[in-house]
Structure formats: C-alpha cells, structure tokens
Amino acid sequence: MAEPITPQPSSSYPQSAQQASANEQQSAPLPALLLGTFTPKMDAKGRVALPARFRQILNGTFVLSRGQERCIYLLPADEFRRMALKIQQAPLGNKAARDYLRVFLSGAVEETTDNQGRVVIPPMLRTYAKLDKQVAVIGVGTRAEIWDLQTWNEYLAGQEEGYSELADDVLTQVSW
C-alpha cells in the first residue's frame, strides 16, 4: 500500500517556530466567549443568578477568585488552572509573583450553579468585592467578572472617557 502524500509548503523556506505556532493557534478552535453585562440581584444567602449563556459556556465547575479592581473573577476551571500554572512558572525568588499567587489562590473556590442557575458567592469574596444586593456580571472573554453595580458603573464611566486612548495602547500590541 502506498504511503499518503503529505502536502509540502509552497515556499522552499522552512517555517519558523513562531509562524508554526501562529498557524496552530489559527487552526485551533476558539473557546466560546463570555460577553455582555447583566445586573442580577444577590439574595441574602449570597446567591447570584448567572446568565444562561454563561452557564452553558462554563459547563459545570468553575472557579471564583479575587480579581483586579476589587471584582470577583469567575473562570472556567480549565482557564483557572492554565492561569495558575502560568503564574507558578515565575521563579520562587520573585517576591511579587509569590505575593500575587498567595492572594490569588488563597481566595479561590471551586463552585457550581444550583438547579436555578445561581452561584453562591462566599462571604470572604463578597467582602473583598464590597458586594451589595445590586451586582453586575460582565463577560470579559475567557472569564466573567462580578462587581458591585455602583462600583462597576463608576469604573466604566471613568474608563469610557479614555477608551480611544486605551485602544491605541492595547491594539498596537495585538497582531492581527
């Protein structure tokens, strides 16, 4: 039986590792993105209803952890593990990495939603994010964030002013 013919690159030059990596990333399926802003109420037991689309993407177990700017990160379990492993690659002698890892991991908890699509936010994380009854659940791509609604609105108002400048700073670092 004849061996299958493997297509060769059209160029006679070998692909660089960077090009090969970029090609692999382009062909790999992209994860579903968590998008949008939702404003559910938190009940007295600290339960917040997650949007149906978020529950579908999170598919079971996820992790809640301290986020930046006093929000709570809600990450798919796989994404949380990927982030934690990446941070742990920093040298043990790097005090900033040790400090960040301690705060990030010590405040993390695995959770699932109940039958009504609600997640219980532990008291420690509610205190950290200064959550009241009104919360904002926002999609940020591979993670969601849970904010106190008033804090989120103030943060967003402050960011909207310089949104164009942020785009100039961030998008120039992205290779399209």
TrEMBL record:
Assigned keywords, A-Z: Cytoplasm, DNA-binding, Repeat, Transcription, Transcription regulation
GO molecular function, one term: transcription cis-regulatory region binding
A single GO BP: negative regulation of DNA-templated transcription initiation
Pfam family name, one: MraZ
Subcellular location: Cytoplasm, Nucleoid
Region annotation Disordered: where it falls in the sequence: 1-26
Listed SUPFAM superfamilies: AbrB/MazE/MraZ-like
GO cellular component entries: cytoplasm; nucleoid
Biased composition (Low complexity): 8-26
Keyword Cytoplasm: yes
Residue runs in coiled coils: none
Recorded family membership: Belongs to the MraZ family.
Subunit-level organization: Forms oligomers.
Protein name: Transcriptional regulator MraZ
